[in-house]
Automatic annotation (TrEMBL):
Gene3D superfamilies: P-loop containing nucleotide triphosphate hydrolases. Pfam families: Sulfotransfer_1. Residues 1-19 form the signal peptide. This is Sulfotransferase. InterPro entries: NST/OST, P-loop_NTPase, Sulfotransferase_dom. Residues 46-91 form the Sulfotransferase domain. The keyword Signal applies. It comes from Gouania willdenowi (Blunt-snouted clingfish). Its EC number is 2.8.2.-. Transmembrane segments: none annotated. Belongs to the sulfotransferase 1 family.
Length: 115
C-alpha cells in the first residue's frame, strides 16, 4: 500500500513538471505574436490515460485548478478515432493562446479486440 501511494505521488510530480514544461513552451511560442488570438477550440496538448478508479478524475481536477489549463467537460472516449477530426476538436473547450487543453478518458487504456 505504501509503495502504491509513493508511486502515485511520484507520478503526480512527474505529470505536474511535464505540464509546466508544456505551458512554458506555449507561452514562449505565443509571446512572439504581435496580436492576441481569439479563444478557439484546439486539439488537446495533453491526454490523461488511466484505468477506471485509478485517480484520473482527481488528477484532472487538480490540474484544472491552474488558470492556464482547460479540460474537456465530457469524456470523449475512443469514438473520435471513428469520427472526423473536426468532431473531436468540437468536443474541446475554448482556450486562449498560452493555455493548455487537457482531455481524459479511462477508455484509452483499454485495448479493444475488434479494432
Amino acid at each position: 500500500m505504501l509503495w502504491t501511494v509513493l508511486f502515485a505521488l511520484l507520478l503526480i510530480l512527474v505529470l505536474q513538471t511535464q505540464m509546466f514544461v508544456c505551458l512554458k513552451e506555449l507561452r514562449t511560442r505565443h509571446s512572439t505574436l504581435s496580436f492576441p488570438l481569439p479563444p478557439h477550440q484546439r486539439l488537446p496538448g495533453a491526454i490523461i490515460i488511466g484505468v477506471r478508479k485509478g485517480g484520473t478524475r482527481a488528477l484532472l481536477e487538480m490540474l484544472n485548478l491552474h488558470p492556464d489549463v482547460e479540460m474537456a467537460k465530457a469524456e470523449v472516449n475512443l469514438e473520435h478515432y471513428r469520427r472526423r477530426l473536426d468532431w473531436y476538436r468540437s468536443q474541446m473547450p475554448l482556450t486562449s493562446s498560452g493555455q493548455l487543453t487537457l482531455e481524459k478518458t479511462p477508455g484509452y487504456f483499454a485495448i479493444t479486440s475488434g479494432s
